[in-house]
Amino acid sequence: MRAFLAGLLLATPLFLGGCSAFTADSPPLPDSTMVRLLIELHLADGRAQVEQDLTLALRDSIFLYYGVDRLDYEATLDYYADQPEAYVTLYEQVLDSLNAQRGSFNRPAPTPPPASPTPPLQGRIAPD
Length: 128
Hints:
It is a single chain. Helix content is 64%, strand content 0%. By secondary structure, the protein is mainly alpha-helical. The chain is globular.
């Protein structure tokens, strides 16, 4: 999974931003939105690998949830293709969040508290 994410980190700006003409000083989408969007898209891609019946509708629903147009998303990727250091910083947030979520799934179930001591024998007469 880590190799897949690292490959995606390196390949995404190259494939989508190779011929970018975007020259703004800031990305079209705020970093916080882009981080959350990338997290959701990665989780959706992972789910799609497990459940083969998922389609692009899931990705479209993620864009809709965040109020992001696919063209704005692609323009933001184009921006980061020209700003690789900024993209690495942004993507580290994505990886940190995904790793934290993965860690919460891998935690062992909490151990139950130790059993209470055996109750005293009933009917026994206590010494005076």
